[in-house]
Amino acid sequence: MAKPVIWTVDDDPDVLRAVERDLRRQYGNRYRVMAADSGAGALESVKQLKLRNDPVALFLVDQRMPHMSGVEFLEAALELYPEARRALLTAYADTDAAIRAINSVKIDHYLMKPWDPPEEHLYGVVDDLLDDWQTSFRPPFQGIRIVGHRWSPHFTQIRDFLARNSIPYQVLDAETDETARQLMASSGADAKQLPLVVFADGSHLCDPTPAVVAEKLGLKTKAELPFYDLVIVGAGPAGLAAAVYGAADGLRTLLIEREAPGGQAGRSSRIENYLGFPTGLSGFDLARRAVSQARRFGVEILAPQDVTGVRVDGPSRFVTLGNGSEVGCRALLIATGIAYRKVDVPGAEQLTGAGVYYYAPMTEALSYKDEDVYIVGGGNSAGQAAMYFSKYARSVTMLVRDGSLSSYMSQYLEDQIAATKNIAVKLNTSVVEVKGEKHCEAVTFVNNKTSERETVSANALFFYVGAVPYTDWLASVVERDVQGYIVSGTHLLRGGKRPRGWTMDRDPFMLETSVPGIFVAGDVRHASAKGVTSGVGEGAMAVKLVHQYLSTV
Ligand SMILES: Cc1cc2nc3c(=O)[nH]c(=O)nc-3n(C[C@H](O)[C@H](O)[C@H](O)COP(=O)(O)OP(=O)(O)OC[C@H]3O[C@@H](n4cnc5c(N)ncnc54)[C@H](O)[C@@H]3O)c2cc1C
Asked: Which atom of ligand 1 is nearest to 237's Cα?
C-alpha cells in the first residue's frame, strides 16, 4: 500500500516550502508529504489520489488564498476524503474565519502562523491529528474497482470476465455506494458511461468491453510465434489437459481461449467426481491449477482470443484469430466444448444480464445474499448451483420440467438438495414468462400436469438448461453430425469407407477428425462421454495421437 498522504496547500512559496520541509523531516518516513500552491491545483491531484485509492490522512491548508480559500478547498476535498483530518493555517486576523470553519467544514484544528519552533507549535497538533486518523483508518482495497448499476448486463459481463480470469476486483454500486459516487466525480464519468473500471494506478475506462480491459491489463492476446507444433482451441478441461501433456512432451504448444481458462467447468462450484479430490474442488480452482501447470511447462496461452476459422495448406493447419491474424501449426486440436442454450421464454431475452442469467459464475451468488432466487433445470449443473446459492440466498427454488430429479442428477447431489432446508424443488414445472421494467421482477411458471399457473416476485432467475456445440465456423472444414458435434475416429467410417477427401494411407485415429492432423477432444466430440474427467482423459489421449500423426508426416 502507498504511504498515506499529508497535504499542505499555501499560496505563499516561502511558507509552503517551510511547512513542507518541517512535515517531511518529522513524518517523511511514515507519510508522503504533498504540497501545492493553490486550492485548484491541489484538488486535481487529490482526485488522482482518489482514483488510485491512495489514503489521505491530513489536509493542512492556508485559509487566505486567492480564487479558492482554505475552507472552500476543504469543502471540496472532503467530498473525496471525508475521513481525512483537516487543519487550517491562519494569520491572527483570520481567527474568526477559522472558528466559523470548525462548524461549516468541521475542521479539527487551526494553527497560527508562524509555527516556529515546530517542535513546540506544530508537531504536537499534527501528531494528535494523525493518531486520531490512524485509529479509524482501514487500509483501502488495492486492485481494480468497478462502479456500475446492479442490473446492467455490461456490469455483469465485466465482473464475470475478471472473476474467471482470477483478477481481484471490488464492486461498487453506483446508486448506493459513497465511494462509487466519489470515483465518478474524480474520473468525470456520468451515469451513462457506466460501468466505470478504475485500475490500481488510478487510470480508468468508461463502459469498456472485456477485450479492452484485457488489453489494458496486459493479458496476452497475440501469439509470439507464427508457427507451432500444436495449437489447441478452447481452454476447458480437455484443452488444458492437452496443453499440459503436449508441452510436457516437448511440443511447442499454443492454447487459445475465447473467454477464460476453465470452460464450463470454471462455472462449477464443486466438482465432486474428479479423481483424487475426495472432498471435491471448485472448477475455478481446477482451472487455476491447470493454468499454472501449463505455464510451467511453457504453454503459451492467448485469452481472451477467439478462433474464427481454420485453413488447411499441405501439411500445415492455420487458424484465423478474432483480430484477423493467422497462426500456423503442424497439428490442431479442437476442444471448444459446448455453450449454453438460450430459452425461448417471453421476457427472458430483454432481461438477460439484468436478473436473468445462463450458467452464472459462482461470484454472482454474493449479489443475491438474503434474497429469493429461482433456478431452472434439473441436471447436475442446476443442482450444484442450487447448493451453492443456498449458502447466500434466503431461499432457492428449483423449477424442474421432469417429474423427478433422478432423471438427470447424480444421487449424491439429489441427497444434498433434499437435506438443505432453504431449497425447494417444484417438479413438472416450466417457466412461461419473465417480467420486469429494467430488471427481472416476476416469474410465471406452470405445472405441466395440472396447468396451474403461478406468478412470484423474483429478482433473479438462473437457467441451467443444457448446452449445444457452436461449430459453424468449422462447417466447411471437418465433418460434423446434425447437431454440430465433430465426428472422429471410427465414426467417420461408413460401410468401412474412409471420409471423403481423406489423404492418408490409414484409417483416422480415434480422436482424429475427417482432416488428418486435426483432432477433437471433450464435449464437442460426437459421442463423447461429457464431463470433466473424460475431457481431461481425451485431452491427454489426443496428445499421444498427435505424436503418432507427426511421426508419419
Ligand atoms: C455449472 C456446471 C457444473 C458442472 N459440474 C460438473 C461436475 O461436477 N462433474 C463433471 O464431470 N462435469 C461437470 N460439468 C460438465 C463439465 O464442466 C464439462 O463436461 C467439461 O467442462 C467439458 O470440457 P471441455 O474441455 O470439453 O469443454 P468446455 O469446458 O466447454 O470448454 C471449452 C472452451 O472452449 C472455448 N471456446 C469455444 N469456442 C471457442 C473458439 N471459437 N475460440 C476460442 N475458444 C473457444 C470456450 O470458451 C470454453 O472455455 C459441469 C458443467 C457446468 C456448466
From this structure: 25
Bridging pattern class, strands 204-206 and 227-233: unpaired
Ligand 1 center to 228 CA (angstroms): 24
Rounded to the nearest angstrom, the distance between the alpha carbon of 236 and the centre of ligand 1 is 5
Ligand 1 mutation target, pool 336, 525, 534, 543, most atoms within 8 A of CB: 336
Tell me, what's the pLDDT at 8?
A: 96
Question: Which residues' Cβ are closer than 6 Å to ligand 1?
Answer: 233-239, 256-259, 263-265, 267-268, 271, 273, 306-307, 335-338, 359, 380-381, 384, 522-523, 530-533, 535
pLDDT at 244: 98
Residues 6+ apart with CB under 8 A from 97: 63, 69, 71, 90
Q: Which residues contact 267 (CB under 8 A, 6 or more apart)?
A: 283, 359, 360, 361, 362, 381
Give the three-state DSSP class for 36: strand
For cell 461470484, what's the residue?
A: 363
Phi and psi angles of residue 32, each rounded to the nearest 5 degrees, phi first: -95, 125
Distance separating alpha carbons of residues 523 and 538, to the nearest angstrom: 10
Task: Please give the Cα distance from 306 to 257 (Å, whole number).
Answer: 6
No. of H helices and E strands in the chain? 14, 26
Which atom of ligand 1 is found nearest the CA of 523? 26
Measure the CA–CA gap between 289 and 77, rounded to whole angstroms: 45
Best probe residue, ligand 1, of 157, 245, 264, 305 (max atoms within 8 Å of C-beta) = 264
pLDDT at 257 (0 to 100): 96
Atom of ligand 1 nearest to the CA of 340: 53
Could you identify the residue written with the cell 474565519? 97
Ligand 1 atom closest to 338 (CA): 30
Mean pLDDT by 10 residues, the chain (553 residues): 91 94 95 95 94 94 90 92 91 78 80 85 91 86 90 90 86 93 92 94 94 90 96 98 98 96 89 88 90 95 95 96 96 96 92 90 82 94 94 95 91 95 97 94 96 95 92 95 96 93 95 98 95 96 98 90
Task: Say what the alpha-carbon torsion angle 505, 509, 514, 520 is, to the nearest 10 degrees.
Answer: -150
Half-sphere exposure of 90 (CA within 13 A, CB side): 19
